[in-house]
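As the work plan foresaw, our protein records have gained a structure token line. A representative record is set out beneath this paragraph:
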Amino acid sequence: MNTTTPAKVHQGRNVKRFREVQGIKQEALAYEIGEDWNQQKISLLEQKEIIDKDLLEKLATALKVPVEAIENFDEDMTMNIISNTFNSSDTSTINTSGTGGTARDYSHCHFNPIDKLIESYEENKKLYERLLETEKEKVALLEKLLENK
């Protein structure tokens, strides 16, 4: 039975975290959410523990994250999950080749990276050829229109 109470999520701090992770400045976020917003108001907003639902929706849209992410993201809980993952007894990602056991073993790759690279080149080539074909069609249509005039 868990007797600890869940920590209260600080929505303003979460807005700041998502903004910083995406490299968005306060001025840019202010511009995205409305004319009556500026850098100072965003700074004050990021200090608020609870943010109005309507404003949360605007912020979520501007930051391209779900509203629930801002409402529920708990950094401490995330760190616990990461910590538990790295401290688990699961050794499937540990290198046992004698290099100290802390490096990852990448020798069990399930695909050939060069094959993947070649596939991406081929896909790009096909996309370029399709683009070139549509451009040729546009030019033909424009020439036809010019002939009719």
Helices lie at 11-21, 26-33, 39-45, 53-63, 67-72, 75-86, 113-148. Confidence is low (pLDDT under 50) at residues 1-5, 93-103. The chain is about 60% helix and 0% strand. Residues 143 and 149 are 10 Å apart (CA to CA).
